[in-house]
Every structure is written in C-alpha cells, then in structure tokens.
Amino acid sequence: MTDQADQSRRNFLYVAAGGMGAVAAGAAVVPFLGSMLPAADTLAASKTEFEVSTVEAGQLVVIQWQGKPVFVVNRTQEYLAQVDGHDDMLKDANSEAIEAVSAAWMDTPEKRKYRSIKPEYLIVVASCTHLGCIPLFKPTKGRKDWGDSVPENWPGGWHCPCHGSLYDISARVINGSPAPHNLHLMPYKYLSDTKVLIG
Amino acid sequence: MLDKMMKSKLFGWIDERTGAEAIIKSQLTEYEVPKNLNYMWNFGSLALLVLVLQIVTGIFLAMYYKPSAALTYGGYTIAFDSVERIMRDVNFGWLLRYMHAVGASAFFVVVYMHIGRGLYYGSFKGPRELLWIIGVVILLIMQGAAFFGYLLPWGQMSFWGATVITNLFGALPVIGEFIQQLLMGGFAVGDPTLNRFFSLHYLFPLLLAAIVGGHVHALHVVHSNNPTGLDVHEGKSTIPFHPYYTVKDAFGVGVFLTIYTYIVFFNPQMGGYFIEVDNYVPANNLQTPAHIAPVWYLTPWYTILRSFESKLLGVLMMGASLAILFVLPFLDRSKVRSARYRPVYKQMVFLFFITVVVLGYCGHSAPTPTLKLIGQLATTYYFAFFLLLPLVNKFEKTKPLPEEI
Ligand code: HEM
Ligand code: FES
To answer: pLDDT tier at B393 (50, 70, 90 boundaries)?
Structure first.
C-alpha cells in the first residue's frame, strides 16, 4: 500500500521536475534565437532620402533602402501608355493580393494602375517576389530589343534572369511567372516636389 | 605489426586504463566483414578522409579569413580581399583554398557514390534503416555546411546564391519570414549574414564529425551489407576488417588522392564547376548576374524547385525530394535487398541515377522552355521512383538467391 502511494508521488515529482526543466530550457532558447534577429542599429538604418529629379527620362536607377535594392524609374509618356491593354495577362492587375503590393494612397483606379504617387516616378522594391534576384529592365514593347528572352506580346517592363519572371512597366507580375506577386511597394512620401523620403 | 604493438608493455599499461585492446579487437581485428565487398564499399572511408581534409584545411584558412562585408579602400570588401590575400600573399594559401574548394566538390562526389551504392544494393533495408536515416541527416548537414561556406568569399555567386536560398525559406507559410530573418540578420543578405554564416560554417562540420561517429557505431552494430544483399554468417563468409579491408581502403585512398591532387594542382576550378567564374567578381547587391546557378552538387534540387510554377509548391517539393529519403526504408517492401536479384528494381534504380544527373544538368543551365520540360519530366520520375516502390514487389519476380556468398 504505502509502496504504491510512494510510487505515484514520485512519478508526479518526476513529471513536475521534468516539466519545469523543459520550460526553463525552452525559455533559455529565447535570448539565443532573439540575438539572431536584426540588431537595433540595423533596424535604425531604415530611412533613405532620394532626389528623383536626378533620374533622366526613361532611365532606371537602383538605390538602397534597408540594405535592399529599390528601383526608381522615370517613366516617359510612351512608357506610361504601355501600362494599359494587358490586364488579362496580369496575376494581380489592381495590386490587391497582399498588403505589401498595395498602399494607402492607392485610392483611385488610376493610382492602382500606375502604382506610384506621381505617375512618372515608379518607386518599388527591386527584389523579385520569387526568390529575390534583381530583374533586368526591358522597358520597350515587343521582342525587337530583347529577343526571345521575353514573350512575343511583351508589353515592356522587367525580366528576372534567375527563373524568368516577367513584370510589366508598373512592376505587376505577368501570368506564367514563378513570382507570386507584383514587386513590393515600400512606404514613401514626397518631402518637396522632387525629394522623396523612403521608409 | 599491430599485434606486436599490442603485446608491448606500454600498450598493456594503456589497456588497463582504457580497455583499448577490447576496442581494437571488436572494431578492427575481430570485426567481421563480408568477404565479397567490391570497390563501391570504399566510398565510406573516403568520405571520412575528405571530412578530415575539410576540417584541417578549413581551420588553417580561418586563421587568415575575415568575415566582414565592410568596404575596403580598393572598393571591394574585407572578406573578398582576405580570400584574395590567402590566394596571393599567404604562404601556401592558394593550396589550402584550392584543397578546401575542390574538397567540397570531392566530398559530394564521394558521398553521392556512397548513397548510390546503398540504393543499388538495398543497404537501406532492414536492419540498416537507422544507419540509412543517420546518413540522410549527414547529407543535409553537408549541404548546409557547403551552402554556408559558399557565401564566405563574398563574390557575386556567393551573394546571389545566398539571396535565393534565404528567400526560399521565406516562402514557407507563417514561420517563413521569421526563419529568413534568423538567417539574414537583416532585411537582405549583408554583413550580419556573413558573420553568422561563418560561425555556422565552423559549427556544421564539427556536428558532422559527431554524427559520423554515430553512423559508424550504428554500422558496427548491424554490420556491412554486401553486393549479394544476403545475410552473412560469421566465419564462413566473413573476414576480419583488419588487415583485409584496412589495406583495401588504403588502396582506395591512394587512387582518390591521385585524382584529387591532380585537380587541386592542375584544374582547381574545373571549368567553373568547382569554383564558379562569377565568384571572382566581388558581391554587388545592386546587380544580379545574368545567370545564377548553385554549385553542381546542389543543382538537382534546384531543378526540382524551378519545375513548379508556384513558389510555395516549388519549395515544398524541393524539401520533399530530400525528406522522402528518410522514409525510403519503409517504402521498399521487397524481401530481397540487392538489385542484382531484382530485375525491375534494377532498371528503376538505374533510371533514377540517370534522372538525378539530368536534373543536375538542367539546374546548371540557363532556363529555356525545353530544359524546363525535361526538368519537369525528370522531377516526376524522381518522385515516381520512390512512390512506385511499395507496388513493385507485388509483381516483381526476383531471381533465385544463392545459398551463401
Ligand atoms: C563539411 C566540411 C566542409 C565543407 C563541405 C566546406 C565547404 C566550403 C566551401 C564550398 C567554401 C567556399 C570555397 C570557395 O569558393 O572559396 C568554403 C570556404 C571556407 N571554409 Fe569551409 N567547408 C567545410 C569545413 C570547414 C571547416 C571545419 C572550417 C573551419 C573553420 C572551414 C572554413 C572555411 C573558410 C575560412 C572558408 C573561406 C575561405 C575560402 O573561401 O576559401 N570550412 N568551405
Ligand atoms: S528570383 Fe526572379 S524569377 Fe526567381
């Protein structure tokens, strides 16, 4: 009798002590894993200013924000016209699939189409939403300048060299690409007519 | 010679305090091994040799290598420059680096042969299931170690390879972003990534050394399979490991080192297969090279990834292609081990080997529609091979087995 009572008490103590030990070990993992997350100074370096007037008409520059590449394109009237007429080729023509491709200022269909505060200056994160390569800028229509790296009905935009994702001139992903989403937008605002604050 | 040494006074003194004699007997001189092992059984000891080579050359490289992405006056980075310094200024630095870089490829050649041997002769089947599973863990850790190491020279391929692979983890639902940040330590591959990859690159091979210990221990409990796949009976069909197989393994080491040193001295980059040409271009986070591909030993899995339109599916299938190796012992239900006596399995496994080579070729080449289709077919067979196994033994007529080897 007493033997049995002892056993079940002991078992309880084993489980309780073991359980506490497991909780403590689990808690000890937090600082170790936590130390691997971005450090405070990495987080702090998260705003960038840029003068968009330095980008020539029709040109693209790549700048850095949070260590990530960012495209700034100065779209000519001709390029802006290329935004229309291929909605059926796009996975997400209105940029609504996920939060990262949308923005609060996208309040009109026009803005959803151009994906920028000022239509001419498109500013997007330059990482392909597939696996993060930087797509190549192939802005003109058709295959004339690009050969068969782009489809015949190419509307102009970007071609990712890594696994062949295609984006139109508003950085919206084209059907058949391995990339799931349009290129991401990041928060930005105009401080003056031509100066933007990214982040 | 060994028996003379074991009779010495010194050995007796050590033996009393460590039990060395019993260990040597049970693991070497009286450890029984089937007498009919062919040269496919040399790759295990070779893998051990290459692991030691990698650890030794790595420790010496680490005396000069500096894991920092900070810019130098020359406009490159401290890490890139430190590798170039190893190549040009450090005494024998070029030799250490070439031994290490060629060693990484040699490691995978040897281990892939070792795994192929296991597949062909049914070494993964009972009672060796756990031995096989430990082996798959070793493969995964090796791939991790090589991936971490490849970032260290901080060239274009290092940088963009790491970007693509860390983004792969980011594709996983719920935990993906967390894992990606743990790996990168920032929002993109950068200096924190390089530091932690160096730390992990040091850790993983040491983990390997420990797990290899477990692998060999598990082997010595269940003993080696053999080309016939028959269970062997001690004494009749076995011989002691020492001296018979120590000598045979030593011969294998000689052949291996001849080829290895030839490559190290005369063709260390192997035409861009062992060290990719683009990796001599310093990392530039604002420009992706026109064509990026992993080093050859990871390309089969890279093709599986690329074969799916959906990113998540690609990532999951790539994971599945490795994970399925864990359950292989339970998928194959045939009582006969060796492909020698299994006509259907034999053809399947040969086709599987060809498939992996095709997958590797596709992953190494720039993507074209034809190659994509070939890659997709090969991916299909890769999985079909495993999934058909439970059905095969239902209709396969195995050949009669010999009584004894
Ligand atoms: C499993 C064994 C190992 C494998 C497969 C492996 C693989 C690699 C690879 C592929 C590289 C890049 C080579 C290049 O292109 O230059 C590398 C670099 C490096 N590894 Fe390892 N390694 C292993 C063990 C170790 C160990 C134990 C150390 C010790 C700390 C080490 C230290 C280094 C260093 C310092 C570099 C940078 C120098 C260089 O790029 O040559 N490695 N490793
Ligand atoms: S990273 Fe752009 S297509 Fe894969």
So the answer is: confident
| CB proximity B363 to A under 8 Å | no
Residue B235 pLDDT grade (very low, low, confident, very high; cuts 50, 70, 90): confident
Distance of CA B217 to the CA centre of its chain: 19
Of A42, A164, A176, the CB nearest to B186: A42
Range of the structural domain that residue A13 is part of:
2-37
- How close is the Cα of B293 to the center of ligand 2, in Å? 12
Q: Model confidence over B75-124: pLDDT tens digits? A: 899 999 999 999 999 999 999 999 999 999 999 999 999 999 999 999 99
Same domain, A21 and A96: no
- Same domain assignment for residues A103 and A140: yes
Q: Which residues of chain A have pLDDT under 70?
A: 1-5, 45
How does pLDDT run across B145-181, given as a tens digit for each residue?
Answer: 999 999 999 999 999 999 998 988 888 888 988 999 9
Nearest to B7 by CA among B25, B27, B21: B21
**The Cα angle at residue B84 between residues B94 and B160, in degrees rounded to 5:** 110
Separation in Å, CA B330 to CA B340, B386, B390: 20, 10, 9
What CATH number does the domain containing A190 carry?
2.102.10.10
* Catalytic one of A130, A159, A163, A184: A163
Best mutation target among A131, A149, A160 (most B Cβ atoms within 10 Å) is: A131
- The pLDDT confidence band at residue B69, using thresholds 50, 70 and 90, is very high
* pLDDT number for residue A3: 59
Query: Two tokens at B218?
Result: 């598990």
Residues whose beta carbon lies within 6 Å of some atom of ligand 2: A 128, 130-133, 160, 162-165, 178-179
Instruction: Report CA(B205)–ligand 1 centroid distance (Å).
Output: 9
Pairs of CB atoms within 8 A across A/B: 83
Give the number of domains in chain A: 2
Written as one string, the DSSP assignment of B84-123 is HHHHHTSTTHHHHHHHHHHHHHHHHHHHHHHHHHHHHTTT
Identify which of B192, B291, B310 has the shortest CB distance to residue A161. Answer: B291
Nearest residue to B203 (alpha-carbon basis) of B257, B141, B159, B261 = B141
The ligand with the least distance to the CA atom of B311 is 2
Q: Which residues of A touch B311 (CB under 8 A)?
A: 130-131, 178-180
pLDDT of residue B405: 80
Separation CA B97–CA B279 (nearest Å): 14
Residues A168 and A120 in one domain: yes
> B310 to chain A: nearest residue by CA?
A178
Residue environment code for B75-94, b if the CB has 16+ CB neighbours within 10 A, otherwise e: eebbbbbbbbebbeebeebe
Same domain, A165 and A109: yes
- Nearest Cβ partner for A36 among B164, B171, B182: B182
Query: Are residues A22 and A51 both part of a single domain?
Result: no
Quote the ligand 1 centre to B101 CA distance (angstroms).
Answer: 7
Whether residues A104 and A132 share a domain: the answer is: yes
Chain A CB contacts of B314 below 8 Å: 178
Q: Which domains occur in chain B, in start order?
A: 32-222+239-292 (1.20.810.10), 294-405 (1.10.287.980)
B346-367 pLDDT, tens digit per residue, is 999 999 999 999 999 999 988 7
Q: According to the model, what pLDDT value does residue B310 have?
A: 80
Residues A17 and A61 in one domain: no
Please check whether residues A101 and A122 belong to one and the same domain: yes
